[in-house]
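Quick illustration for those who missed Monday's session on complexes.
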Amino acid sequence: MGESSRPPISDGVRGVDGSHGSDGVHGGHGSHGSDAASAGRTFDTIKSDAVQLERSLQNVASHICPECRPSHSPHHMSKIIAIANHAGGVAKTTTTLNLGHALAELGNRVLLVDLDPQASLTEGLGIDPFSLPYAIHDLVLETKPGLVITEAIQKTDIPNLSILPSHIDLAQAESQLFSEYRREQILADLLKPILGLYDFVLIDCQPSLGILPTNALTAADELLIPVTSDPKAVRGLKQLLDTVTRFRRKLNPALKITGIVVTNHDGRTQLGRQMLELLREGHPHDVLSVVIPRSVRTQESSALGKSILTYQPTSPVSQAYRQLSG
Ligand SMILES: Nc1ncnc2c1ncn2[C@@H]1O[C@H](COP(=O)(O)OP(=O)(O)O)[C@@H](O)[C@H]1O
Ligand SMILES: [Mg+2]
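Prediction with adenosine-5'-diphosphate bound:
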């Protein structure tokens, strides 16, 4: 009832073989005389060999280095999704990590951007932020002149999944960027050079509506809002949506709302069920039909620095994140 019929997150992203079928390889049409016909056939043979060779090379390249695969189309750009809510504890980080893992499982090249100084996403992938030579604060605050974004990006143990890690020093952004020129555009400018390299860029935001989440919403094509099915989170949602409306008018009119995803949902309690009903009635076009159930395994997985898709691949939470991605 009242469920959204929005398309899945990865709608529109095609397979990764990069092939174009037999387009452009025609028979020897329009030739008169045997010389012309044989020249036409030779040309067609060479062209068809070239197409086959290109496909084989792409196959080889994708086996050696998944990140080196060609983009799906010549005009391909990443879809940038900000995962934001000014409330804390609504599973923003959990959703970024597990949706990212699920999209990567489908063969998409995914970059996670940890834009929260708490660095929970970075730690959630088993990476110690203090062990890294560079992190996102070095780019945002320009602490290392000449550093390029690709130097700060880390590959993870999960195929196709990379992360731009965070560090507690990013907390200085709020005060340091206060008087900066184009301060809302910093992340968008940083991401520009790598947009063709990934199918999806997912940005995990801190629980505020300060300068960092504003940067995420300015850089993003879409906003995914995780919300828990408890009264406080439900009440805060209206305020968030009002802010997003104002934000769109001023900074990013093209920003779309992917949807509201209900997370950490306890369908066994009456309160949980009532809150879900209330959310669906209040936001019939935005609340996504996929609901992420509550499971203690999710907390265990983040404590162990693993995604739930790695820790318990077949759990209902993993399945729900897969549904969200597909
Ligand atoms: N589906 C779930 N079931 C149980 N616990 C969850 C679930 N999703 C998230 N959590 C837990 O809720 C807490 C807050 O999640 P987190 O992703 O850190 O929220 P946020 O990033 O919005 O602050 C974490 O301890 C996390 O493990
Ligand atoms: Mg978080």
